[in-house]
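From the pipeline queue, job 12 of 40. The input is one protein chain; the requested action is below.

Action: predict structure.
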Amino acid sequence: MSFEELDRYISALGDAEDIDHIIRVLQKQVKRLGFEKMAYWLRWHKQEAKEPIILSTYPQKFLDHYVANDFQCHDMVGRFSNEKNTPFKWSDISKELTITRMQKVLFDDSSSVGLRSGGSIPIHGPHSMKATLSVASNISEKEFDDLFNYHRHELHLLAAYAHEKIASLGMSEVEKQFRLSSRETEILKWVARGKTYWEISTILSIQEDTVKKHMNNIFVRLGVSNSRHAISKGIVYGLILP
C-alpha cells in the first residue's frame, strides 16, 4: 500500500458516519489485498459469559452456528489475540497452544464454509477497548500464510485506523445522536448479558411485549435491525459497558 492509498483510506474513514460505513471501507481494502472474508469483533472479558459482537462478511449461518454452540468459549483466536500485539496466522496457534477437541471442531466447521485458512490482528485500545480483525480465505494454508506474511503490516495499519475511528465515535456527540431512556439502557444491558425477552420481563417485572416494544425503539434510535448490532453500537458509543 502506497502512502497515497493509505491517505485515501484514512480520508474515507474520516468521512464515515457510522460503524457500517467503517466496515465497508475496511472490507474494500481487505478484499483488495486478496482476502475473501473478514471479521471485526469485540470480545467480552473472560469472566463474562456473553455472546461475542461480530461485524463480518462470514456466512451468517456459520455465525449463528458459532453462537449457538458457544464456540466463543473455545475459540483460540480470541485467546491468542489477547496475548499478542502483532499479527499472527491461525496456523501459528497450534505451535504454542494445545488444541482441544472442541477447538478442532471449530476449525473444521470454519473450513467447511470457506474459512479454510486465516490470520488475525490484535487491537488494544484506546480506552482499554480490545478487538480483533481476522481475515480468511478458502486457499491452502501455505498459500494463505505467504499472502498474510506479505500483507501483515498493511493489515495492521488498516485495522488500527478502523478501530480508532470506531472508538472515536463514542467520544463525539453520541449522546445527542443516540440517546436512550434509562429503561431502554437497562434492557439493552440485559440483552447484552444474553438474557431473553421473557427473562428480562421477569427480572424487571414488566410484560414481555413491553420489552419487545422497548427493543424496537432501541433499534430505531440506534439505526439497527437486530440485537447483536444494537449491542455493538451500544458498546462503542459508550451507552453500555462490555
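Job complete. The chain has two domains: 3-169, 174-236.
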